[in-house]
Amino acid sequence: MKSNSIIMNSKVMLIVCLLLTSITVSAQTMVNSLEELFPYLQQDSVEVVLKPGTYTIIAEDIINDKFKSETNIDRHKALVLLLFSGNSSTYDFTNVNLHVETKVLTVYGEYDEFYEIQVTGNNNVIKNLTMADIGSVNDYPKRRACNVVMDGANNKIEGLHLSTKGSYPYGYGETFGKGGKNVIPHFKHSAFLVRGYKNHVKNCTIIHRSYGHALFMQAADEPLIEGCYIEGAMRSTDDMLAETGTGSDGDKAGFMTYFGYKLPPGYMMSMGEGGIRAYNGGETIIDGVEYNRGTSNPTIINCTVKNMRAGVTLTHATGTKYVSGTTVIGCERGFCIGTGDIVDSYADTQYGPALGVDYITDSGMNAEITLLPYEGKSYNGSGHAAIIIGSNHKITLKNSNPNPDQNLKINIGGDNRTIGLLAKDENYSASNILLHNFTEYPVVLDDNSSNCNGISASKVLDEGQNNHLFFKEILKD
Predict the structure, then answer these.
(1) What CA–CA distance (Å, rounded) separates 321 from 340?
(2) Assigned domain for 430 exists
(3) What are the strands, taking DSSP E only, across 237-338?
(4) pLDDT confidence of residue 13
(5) What is the pLDDT of residues 189-229, one digit of tens each?
(6) What does the pLDDT read at residue 473?
(7) CA 58 to CA 81: how far, in whole Å?
(8) Using H for helix, E for strand and C for coil, what is the string for 372-423?
């Protein structure tokens, strides 16, 4: 009897295993075209694999309503090529190349915005898609465009390789404006917008060749940006000014910037905007409910940002802000988070300061940054290796640059100068700063600094009040 029972149990277990295997196999659906994929984007609990290959969306597809979904958030009407509105689904795009012709940016009609991908459902995984804008950098949206927008909750986009192209004007960075007041009207195209709740961007690559942000957050609570690589393009102001007499957009504007003065030589500017950026406003939709709020509790881990206007800027986020293991290379400014923690991170000073602070009201930043060497000429016209204003910051700057430019200073208090602020006479205060400077960049305590302490491996010029930051020779290996 016992033997029969064992045999029966074994048969039952075998049947269960076969059923589970059958369910697993049948749950994964292979589709052979974008047209076949489209209905699955609205479904719950599906596992979909798009057949490897190259798929191209052209302007005629939009004109003929071939790929056309709509979303409305806070009265902003968006045209979306691929709208992921289902829940708890997985979409595998391994070895898939999705090409979107930049002419598509010019034909979306009455819509306020254009998105190539938007996620509005919850608990979805989208993985391993390679997506590229194919065409001219001068094809631009009639209003605004963004390649990827994440709404909903607990979604993950992993392994995305995104190449962004198409905006106006392109090639001048923020010279002629960045929204609101513009010398030349702007039509921006950003790459990746994170909104919603606990959305996760993992191991993604963004090659950014348009004027707009690479990866930015609006109305996002607890977003996680992990293992991402972001790369923009730089151009010197000398190269821009060489267009004088050519009839280019910059030449027609007389290179008069929206800052109120003519573009100066000697700077390097990004053709894009923020690498990783958080905003204090925005709209999102979760479970069909719209939220109007800022960004809170962002986490940035093990990312690299290269050649953007700013590397990691979280000043306008609230709550807990945490940056770890992140490297910023060749940006107009490296890190700027206002409050919160920067741990085990890296930045160079070739085109701008490695660390900045936006407002004198910013307080309580804890930063540990290693300053990196770089190859080639310095275009850091700001004169800062770091600029620290505000209060109650604890900053450790480590050295990985054997020959730091002595014309660049670690400034505590004083001007917060960048290319956009050259015409202003600024003098910002700094107080209760603890600085451990293990680099050979000299330190300047401005006359508007007070009660600052610490040690420095380089010379210190103190023009402030009640400061106790002293030179201390650091033994080298």
Answers:
(1) 5
(2) no
(3) 268-270, 274-278, 283-286, 289-292, 299-301, 304-306, 310-313, 322-324, 327-329, 335-336
(4) 52
(5) 999 999 999 999 999 999 999 999 999 999 999 999 999 99
(6) 77
(7) 11
(8) CCCCCCCCCCCCEEEEECEECCEEEEEECCCCCCCCCEEEECECCCCHHHCC
Q: What angle do CA 292, 177, 173 make, to 5 degrees?
A: 105
* Integer Cα distance of 362 and 396 in angstroms: 17
Q: Hey, what are 201's tokens? A: 């961007």
- 54, pLDDT greater than 70: yes
Q: Cα(320)–Cα(363) distance, rounded to whole angstroms?
A: 13
The tokens for 62 are 């939009």
Instruction: Give the helix/strand (H/E) hosting 241.
Output: helix 237-241
400 is written with which tokens? 């990985």
The H or E element that residue 160 is part of is none
Place of tokens 């210190």: 460
Q: Which two tokens stand for residue 397?
A: 């700057």
| Structural contact between residues 278 and 238, judged by C-beta atoms closer than 8 angstroms | no
Place of tokens 């998105």: 115
Beta-carbon contacts of residue 45 (< 8 Å; ≥ 6 apart): 86, 87, 88, 89
The answer to whether residue 466 sits within a structural domain is no
pLDDT tens, position by position, 352-401 = 999 999 999 999 999 999 999 999 999 998 899 999 999 999 999 999 98
Does residue 143 sit in helix, strand or coil? Answer: coil
Pairing, β 76-84 against β 69-73: antiparallel
pTM: predicted TM-score of the whole model, two decimal places? 0.93
Residue listed under structure tokens 């694999």: 49
241 pLDDT exceeds 90? Answer: yes
pLDDT at 90: 98
In a domain, 41, yes or no: yes
CA–CA distance, 431 with 429 (Å, rounded to integer) = 7
DSSP 19: H
Strand partners, 291: 284
What average pLDDT score do residues 95-103 get? Answer: 98
Domain of 227 in residue numbering reads as: 28-332
pLDDT value of position 17: 46
Burial (CB count <10 Å: 0-12, 13-18, 19+), residue 352: buried
Is 306 strand, coil or helix? strand
**What's the CA gap between 273 and 213, in Å, rounded?**
5
Task: Choose among 272, 267, 469, 285: nearest CA to 381.
Answer: 267
Taking 60 as the threshold, does the pLDDT of residue 20 lie above it? no
Number of domains in the chain: 1
φ, ψ (nearest 5 deg) of residue 241: -65, -20
Question: Is 442 part of any domain?
Answer: no
Note if the bond before 298 is cis, omega within 30 degrees.
Answer: no
Amino acid identity of 275?
Answer: G
* Residues 448 and 286: beta-carbon distance below 8 Å: no
Give which of 321, 175, 358, 169 is closest to 249, Cα–Cα: 169
